[in-house]
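for the writeup, i need someone to sanity check this before i put it in the appendix. the sequnce is what the collaborator sent (i think, or maybe the updated version? ugh). structure was predicted straight from it, no edits. if anything looks off just tell me and ill rerun, i have time this weekend
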Amino acid sequence: MLEILNRDWGKTDVVTAFCSLYYLSEGDMAIVVQRASEIARLMILQANTATRSEAAQNKSKKASFEFTRQLLKENGFPIIEVFAPPYYNRPLFIGKKE
């Protein structure tokens, strides 16, 4: 995911990160989402609400519903739609620009 910072990708319609972004540090997550907002009008992230609290590098917090929502909102995608069917522990967040 950090490769988005090191190349000129031009402009694109969407950037996706399915069950991957929360393996980065919180700071790197924010930088990646901010960069995505510069090159795309949409970003789709997948959270993971079933992650154990002691899992790798506080992954439980970084993969949570609320953290994912705030991450998008604070880094360039203020409009957020969430798709979270009942009993599904990996909701999709679609961040959109205004």
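The first strand starts at residue 12 and ends at 17. The helical segments are 26-39, 59-62, 65-74.
thx in advance!!
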